From TrEMBL:
Domain of life: Bacteria
Keyword terms of this UniProt record: DNA damage, DNA repair, DNA replication, Hydrolase, Magnesium, Metal-binding, Mutator protein
Signal sequence region: none
Species assigned in the record: Solilutibacter silvestris
Enzyme class, UniProt record, top EC level: hydrolase
Reaction equation(s) it catalyzes: 8-oxo-GTP + H2O = 8-oxo-GMP + diphosphate + H(+); 8-oxo-dGTP + H2O = 8-oxo-dGMP + diphosphate + H(+)
Binding positions (Mg(2+)): 37, 57
InterPro entries: Aldolase_TIM, Mutator_MutT, MutT-like, Nudix_hydrolase, NUDIX_hydrolase-like_dom_sf, NUDIX_hydrolase_CS, NUDIX_hydrolase_dom, ThiamineP_synth_sf
Gene3D superfamilies: Aldolase class I (3.20.20.70), Nucleoside Triphosphate Pyrophosphohydrolase (3.90.79.10)
Binding site for 8-oxo-dGTP: 23, 34-37
Cofactor(s) the protein requires to work: Mg(2+)
Record's protein name: 8-oxo-dGTP diphosphatase
Start and end residues of each Nudix hydrolase domain: 3-127
Amino acid sequence: MEPIHVVAGVIRDVRGRILLARRTQGRDLAGLWEFPGGKIEPGETPQQALQRELREELGIEATVGGPLIAVPQHAPKALMLDVYEIKHYRNAPRGLDGQALAWVPPEKLAQYAMPPADGPVVAALLQPDRLLITPEPVDGDAWLRALEASVERHGIRRVQLRAPLFATSHPDDWRRLVEQACASLRGQGVDVWINGDAGLAREFDAGLHLRSTQLSSPAASEWSGLRLAASCHSMAELQVAAGLRCDFALLGPVKETRSHPGVVGIGWNMFRDLRAQVPVLPVYALGGLGSADIVESRRNGAQGIAAISAWNA
Ligand SMILES: Nc1nc2c([nH]c(=O)n2[C@@H]2O[C@H](COP(=O)(O)OP(=O)(O)OP(=O)(O)O)[C@@H](O)[C@H]2O)c(=O)[nH]1
Ligand SMILES: [Mg+2]
């Protein structure tokens, strides 16, 4: 069955607060908060549909801006939640269907109970759209300096410290590098994640980025209290990541990569289809992608791009 195409708007007031509407009784998902909007009718463009919905539901005349993210969802209902920024609008929004309205500071959005597909929308508003994954160090000091420079040059706000070979062959050097990297990246305002090692994540108060192999035997007690993210290659792994309430997952490879030559990517259609199985979970796309792919990734339901090669040059 074709998914229902739903358009919704991010409407801000002069203080930067965002408008949520509460779904009224007697409809599906009653009582949950949502971004105002509704279903596209035959013959309408998404922008026309959104203008009409906002006129009908809120009494405003809106100018639709750029797309934020389009979240595909398979179940419980097949839909595509296609969200746009509202550039400006005339009239003060009112709940014309009797729905309650709330102006919510962005950092408080997570306190409102929303439908599953809104999870990635809120993440797209609040969290970084690019995630840098480190390469293996050759020389530790050079690795650290290069990391700081890449973060600066590419405007990176989220980093995964990953070096499985070096971490195994030089565990003490790796621990020291992780310590230095955490200190310096935090000074640059970066959210730091550590690949695979719960002990290091705990010691340096970073998130734990789970390898896909760790998802097959979840060590819930060892990970308790840590922020979790996960690398996934299949629907089953994505479902484990969602079950662990990961902050986000990585899914790929979308295209063939320099680090894995000869491994064919899954492509955007497959990416979208897989991520639609776990609507609530923010998912970065990776594999042969960089800054130029962020817009397309958002059209396919991604939080953005994760990459080694693109941002370590
Ligand atoms: N407007 C809106 N709909 C959402 C959001 N998240 C989400 O899952 N949906 C789902 O998308 C569908 C939107 O349909 P709707 O009920 O608002 O449709 P509508 O305004 O055209 O009115 P209708 O109820 O008369 O059909 C619902 O199944 C709703 O649960 C959201 O943030 N905003
Ligand atoms: Mg509606």
